[in-house]
Amino acid sequence: MTGVLALTACAKDSGDNSAAGDGGEGNGECVTAAAPPRAEASSSEREAAEDVDASDLKVGLAFDVGGRGDASFNDAAAAGVDKAVEDMGVGDTTESTAAGTESEDAKQQRLRQMAEQGYDPIIAVGFAYADALNAVAPKYPDTHFAIVDDDSVDQPNVTPLVFAEEEGSFLAGVAAVYKSENCHVGFVGGVNTPLIQKFEAGFVQGAKAVSDKVKIEVDYLTPAGDISGFNDPGKGNVVAKAQIDKGADVLYHAAGASGKGVFEAAKAGGALAIGVDSDQYEQKTVADVKDVIMTSMLKRVDVAVYDYIRAVAEDDLDSLPERFDLSVDGVAYSTSGGKVDDITDVLDGYKAQIVAGEIEVSPTP
């Protein structure tokens, strides 16, 4: 790999793009930037919390739409709780899932019911719970609450769990270009909100960082306020097919359960796809289309939820990072399926540059 990268850099420096990037299955003509220096090997293995006793905790998990089994965001949160049960012996858990069109009163009721039943901590999965949590948390000052993807709730008993989605998506954009045969890639967002725009922003910046020739399609399934875009595989399929028909051959989705439709369109259209949040290659609910999933942008909601439960058990919330970014493996990329094995040095090189501050990734398109 070192030799390949060296030859690649030489080819680019000489202006010969015929070998540029050597993107594995791709033809390499799309990559126009020299590969970054190879990153030094580092160990980022996380220690399990077997020594932490959480048997007194009763954890409540308030899912966003899609719930457990969405093969994405909610499943990642569930995995964090499941691991906490296994490692720390959490005493009891409960979970409840939001409906696509439910009212704020319904969200508040879900949180209140968990608090009344003695669940502590209670984890709200998704920014859609912000208003409800802001109303409920003050009424239960002795209960610990956390909210994923929102830092607007200013209550002393509420902990935000937020991520640098743009950093992980940057690496997804790099991978997409290296694997594109057509120098044409696409992004499918679930709902057009500032949060999902962070995924778009990073993906586009990553793609453009390695190619000044790449064409990028960007589409959202629903506008802000209509969260059905996170749970509509049919619409995901239609939008993804349209991008493939235009020539895109690698699609990255940030669309929750709608991503299954993106994968199905990719399989039917001979394209590749990039998953999101969880390692979607390993998700049973998309097993029939996993062969098109070249990698996933791992948004480690499982890590954040697990670390939060541990921090509550140890009464040490100050130990949590302000933001789960590349430097703490709060975002990452997956290698399941082996389709990016030949470009991991490239991806790790860009990761190292982002962590070192040599590349700054904007969270806005």
UniProtKB/TrEMBL annotation:
InterPro entries: BMP_lipoprotein (IPR050957), Peripla_BP_I (IPR028082), PnrA-like (IPR003760). It comes from the Bacteria. It is a lipid-anchor. Residues 33-42 have a biased composition (Low complexity). One of its GO terms (cellular component) is plasma membrane. Residues 62-359 form the ABC transporter substrate-binding protein PnrA-like domain. It is found in: Cell membrane. The keyword Acyltransferase does not apply. It holds the Pfam family Bmp. Keywords: Cell membrane, Lipoprotein, Membrane, Signal. Residues 11-53 are annotated as: Disordered. Belongs to the BMP lipoprotein family. This is Putative ABC-type transport system, periplasmic component/surface lipoprotein. It comes from Saccharomonospora glauca K62. The lineage of its organism: Bacteria, Bacillati, Actinomycetota, Actinomycetes, Pseudonocardiales.
